[in-house]
Specification:
The protein is built from five helices and 37 strands. The chain has 607 residues and is mainly β. Strand 19 and strand 20 form a beta hairpin. It is globular and about 65 Å long. It starts with a helix and ends with a strand.
Length: 607
Amino acid sequence: MNKSILAVAVASLLSHAHSIHAQEVTVDETMVVTANRFEQSQATTLAPISVVTRDEIEAYQANSITEVLRRLPGVEIAQNGGRGQNASIFLRGTNSDHVLILIDGVRINSSAGGVAINHVPVGLVERLEVMRGPGAAIYGSDAIGGVINIITRSQRGDEAKSVEVGVGSNSSKKANIAAKADVSDDGHFQVGAGYESTKGYDIKVPATNIDYGYENKNMLVGYEHEFGPNWKGYVSALWMESLTDYDSWGLMHGYSENQSFTGQLDYNKDDYLSKFTINYQQTEKTDYSQSEGYDNASTKAEIELTQIQWANLYQLNDELALGAGVDGRREKLKDGAKNYGSPHVLAGESRDTKGIYATSLATFNRLTLEANARFDEHDEYDDYTTWSIAGGYQIDESHRVRASYGTAFKAPTYSDLTTTPDLKPEESENIEVGVSGHYSLASWNVSIYDNQVDNLIIWYRDSANNWYSDNVDARIKGIEFDVNFDTGPVNHTVVAEYKDHKDDNDVQLARRAKENYKWIAFASLGDFEVSSTYTYTGERLDLPSETPSSDDYIPSTSLWDVSVGYWIAQNMVLRARVDNLFNEEYELAKGYKAPERAYFVSAKIDF
């Protein structure tokens, strides 16, 4: 049965269900909000989207968001060592900064680098949504490879209080508390806080006899209130602080603190939905050596980001839904910013970006058509128009085909412009076709894509060991296949990917493999939960090079992780996991050892 986007969105926004559409929504549907900013059934989207729930995150026993993401189709992770070290996310072979990162629908990227996703605490995450393919026609700059939406917000009816503690290898420890509950007849309150730390290990090859540790503290407070039958408001405050030991020609310390404040007002009546959001973020990033100390840091930046979003959706009739919205953001690199001891060349400058977009979704029996267009005005670069079209056809009850075309762009960051002030913005054109099948015991999806990226920004190292940025063209072609099925009590997810990604010098793009294979198995056996993950990552170029040699490539890796959970009581679970079960020696970046076999145990109590 076909359902309009608005039908599903109304059902989610209204705690009461007086809408004539709400009764059509079935409880077994997976709902997503990333495809067009309003909630809709995952089955109705025309872009491939992966969803990871809170229960799945806990079953994985993941200590970071990157540990969750690496299991998903289209995602590769490169990291300079263990927990807290610099991590890059490559989505479908695009650059690591070609993924737009959202928290509750609000971007956390900024022109000065923003918040590293591996510092966002996984303990606060209610759900992860990863949309693969260009999203610029909806979200604007950055979404060349896709969009990752980190959802922390709970909903009315979510009643839970929990405490979790854990310890592991390398003196790792963590503690999380969370509470969410309805307050009176109209309010819903949530609070979460967490702490984690690890002594780390010697990440360098050859060894330096230095342990590179990590520490993170975080807190989230949110409150939702229904003001009447048509109005609902939400406010939240998020604070994150981290300290990372890392290597840069010796031991360095990286400190970051992010504060984010969000207010949102939802309106819904009959066939119209509207959502207005305002967000303010302040991020401090400081890098210093042991001898310098924090107060005399040679590299530091304080970034302010202010954003407004107004999104609207109108159900014109049973077949056609129309959407439109405006976005605005101001990013400022405050005075006093320094880069390796020198004043940052862009200190005190701000960037203003304004965008307006329109969307449409038409459903005619088995045929679904979508069209999106967006215009962005950037105060430092040309104006940009991005657009996308997509179509899907339901062949029969179990099979569907789809096709799409979309454009995207990304403006250079403050960091990019430090060495090369005349960099051009990156632009892309992506073509994709796909087919999927859904049955009672299995579902599968195949996607084939071809992404042409012009003016791709790559950082090279010159003969004097200095880094500089430059524009090149690149083409990324790929096929990805994923299937989910059951064999008795065991659920399996298998992912197979092949990518051909080269720049205009016919050189493979760095840190990305051509082949990736993943197998995730999960079983619930009485009071026990058992999970295993296998990942294979093919050979890949380490650092960008115009003329790489065979020594510049990282060998392929095969890894096994296992985890077990035991429910002592209905409200208490003990969990244990082993990463790198067979203690493989490998590198995700040359000169940096990946973690050896590692253990972690935790206990969680729900009240």
